[in-house]
């Protein structure tokens, strides 16, 4: 556990540095949400209906923007080989790196959601629902994206490959995240059903993601 906690702290420090990627994702999320009201126009009712989808799309794209560095920096400086050969199971190391990425890049998006919801004419209840769905769904984006990052780490043009692999896997998370948020705003669907499916998707990705990423790294680094 000491090695895993040290790995988490190290990855968080690297992500929070200038150019580490976490700040880039937050700024991209902010830019998408700020520009959308100018594109939609002065229709506040339409803006409030589109608000959850805008926030979720911004979070999804911001997550993809930073995932390509999940293993790439370690591969470039050789530390990925040390992680692979260490006594700590590679699956646990992958899970720790994904957790560190979510804490550094995903959690700030959730914290910023209540403020950005004001720009989209969302009331406190709707903004709270979107933040709750992001809290439940963004881990699925991170652990699913980790698989694509592991596959792309040893390949040329890996960023493009990761986007092609990860986007289809992220669509169910996007669908149920927006559906749960919309249920609070317009109904008639209840909030519980899509939110439960969203939580299930995160739990499934939490179990499958580290094993699939570890297998991809072992195959790619051999």
Automatic annotation (TrEMBL):
It is found in: Cell inner membrane. The chain crosses the membrane at residues 21-41, 53-71, 92-120, 126-153, 160-185, 191-217. InterPro entries: Cyt_c_biogenesis_CcmB, Cyt_c_CcmB_bac. One of its GO terms (biological process) is cytochrome complex assembly. GO terms for molecular function: heme transmembrane transporter activity. Pfam families: CcmB (PF03379). Keywords: Cell inner membrane, Cell membrane, Cytochrome c-type biogenesis, Membrane, Transmembrane, Transmembrane helix, Transport. Its main location: membrane. Signal peptide: none annotated. PANTHER family: CYTOCHROME C BIOGENESIS B-RELATED, HEME EXPORTER PROTEIN B. It is a multi-pass membrane protein. The keyword Cell inner membrane applies. Belongs to the CcmB/CycW/HelB family. Required for the export of heme to the periplasm for the biogenesis of c-type cytochromes. One of its GO terms (cellular component) is plasma membrane. The lineage of its organism: Bacteria, Pseudomonadati, Pseudomonadota, Alphaproteobacteria, Hyphomicrobiales. This is Heme exporter protein B.
């Amino acid at each position: 556990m000491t090695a895993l906690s040290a790995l988490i702290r190290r990855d968080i420090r690297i992500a929070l540095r200038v150019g580490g990627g976490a700040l880039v994702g937050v700024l991209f999320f902010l830019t998408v949400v700020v520009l959308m009201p100018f594109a939609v126009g002065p229709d506040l009712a339409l803006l409030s209906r589109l608000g959850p989808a805008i926030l979720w799309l911004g979070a999804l794209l911001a997550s993809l923007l930073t995932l390509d560095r999940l293993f790439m920096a370690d591969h470039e400086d050789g530390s990925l080989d040390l992680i692979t050969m260490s006594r700590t199971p590679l699956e646990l190391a992958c899970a720790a790196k994904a957790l560190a990425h979510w804490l550094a890049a995903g959690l700030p998006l959730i914290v910023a959601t209540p403020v950005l919801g004001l720009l989209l004419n969302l009331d406190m209840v709707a903004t709270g629902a979107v933040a709750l769905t992001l809290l439940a769904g963004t881990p699925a984006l991170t652990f699913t994206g980790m698989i694509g990052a592991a596959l792309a780490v040893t390949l040329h043009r890996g960023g493009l490959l990761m986007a092609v692999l990860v986007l289809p896997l992220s669509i169910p998370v996007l669908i149920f995240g927006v559906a749960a948020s919309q249920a609070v705003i317009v109904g008639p669907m209840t909030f519980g059903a899509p939110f439960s499916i969203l939580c299930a998707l995160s739990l499934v990705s939490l179990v499958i993601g580290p094993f699939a990423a570890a297998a991809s790294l072992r195959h790619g680094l051999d």
